[in-house]
Amino acid sequence: MSEFTLWDIVYNLALAARWTVLLSLTAFVLGGGVGLLLLMARTAGNPWAMRLVRGYVELFQGTPLLMQLFIVFFGLPLIGIDVSPWVAAMLGLTLFTSAFLTEIWRGCVESIGFGQWEASASLGMNFRQQMRYIILPQALRIAVPPTVGFSVQVVKGTAVASIIGFVELTKAGTMITNATYAPFTVYGCVAVFYFLICYPLSLYARHLEGKLRHVAR
Amino acid sequence: MAYKFDFGAIVPHWELLLNGVVLTTELTVVGSVIGVSLGVLGAWARASRAPVISQIVGVYVELIRNTPFLVQLFFIFFGLPALGVKLTEFQAAVLAMVINLGAYSTEIIRAGILAIPQGQIEAAQSLAMNRVQIFRYVVILPALKKIWPALSSQIVIVMLGSSVCSQIAAEELTFAANYIQAMNFRAFEVYFIVTGVYLVMSILLRWMLKVFGNFLFERRNHV
After folding, report:
1. Is residue A1 part of a domain?
2. CA–CA min distance A130, chain B (Å)
3. Alpha-carbon distances of B214 from B34, B36, B98, B115, rounded to whole Å
4. Under 8 Å CB-to-CB from A33, ≥6 apart: which residues?
5. pLDDT tens digit string along B87-129?
6. Residue A137 belongs to a domain with what CATH number?
7. Complex ipTM value
8. Cβ–Cβ below 8 Å for A62 and B203
9. Which residues of chain A from 56 to 85 reach within 8 Å of chain B, CB to CB?
10. Among the CATH numbers 3.40.50.80, 3.40.50.720, 1.10.3720.10, 2.60.40.3080, which is that of B13-218?
11. What is the nearest CA distance from A60 to chain B, expressed in angstroms?
12. Which NCBIfam families does the record cross-reference, listed alphabetically (chain B) (predicted)?
């Protein structure tokens, strides 16, 4: 049996951490796109679309991420789509992310004064123009800090993907533990890796928040 | 390929699911009562002017908030025995939830404490109250009242997060689901139903926390 040094553990975890980062980025970007579409549907004023999006958000905020991944992973094959753990994890996390981002962004859009809507409407702008030129540019400024803050939740959420067999940081940790019987060291290192990814994001979010508060004064 | 859904296949296993619901509830109740208490202590330490303790609590909060719950759980259940701390699945799950919620609620409650007007504390000082009395009678209830919605959301998140405790074989709801699908191979149906159960549980929990909050804060309004 080969000997695992601390360096081997760290090196292999670093390799796996790339997948954590890739999964986080993919879920965040795709989830942001879906979230933006949902935001449009939510704010466009159609009561049915509004109810539907509200139900969607309630569903994803009211159930465990693990269950969402299980349903994607075991559900899609039933309708004839074979999914790998990677696709299931990406899809599940994208839906999860989109629900939370829609809700965060809705708050930002609603914080824009109603006068802005009325003024742009009086200029003859339609909904898309109002959003594009008046509302979103203002909402974007307030939306950035909480969005960066939420990216930390996405990174931590990718750990759950290990349970459906996607090999990222946590799964790699489990596999290395099974080979080395050194869970204390290995999971300690895994935690350090997550911390190194998440803490800068947390700090950046806090920095942005502080800057925004400064501007608002 | 036509798959026939068979949700009836879950019915014979209702007792397993019920046990799972009971254990998830136990985990959530014990975890959040101790976790929020830890959060109150932590917030007090953070808000107090003792620099060393405040910094230690700060490090704890950042460490926990920037690592996944699943990794914390694995570290406690698989890692701690190396230091001679052996825990059962239930104990490890509760400990992980307490430590996790403790960090989040420290930060949430601290925000509530910072929002208490300084004049209130000065008024209490002028009545010759000591620090414990001020915290107990003047600070903590209004602080909790301010942040109760945020704290409630966090407790719901912890309840939902407890589903990963199935991975250390704590026999909660997700564990029951895994067990049932291993017996009847109806993975989709089981997880679909269990997801619905979680949804109902989170709606109920949110409602109960709201009622509890009203009871806790409204009753003392006339004092």
Report:
1. no
2. 32
3. 21, 17, 24, 20
4. A98
5. 999 999 999 999 999 999 999 999 999 999 999 999 999 999 9
6. 1.10.3720.10
7. 0.91
8. yes
9. 58-59, 61-68, 70-71, 74-75, 78-80
10. 1.10.3720.10
11. 9
12. HEQRo_perm_3TM
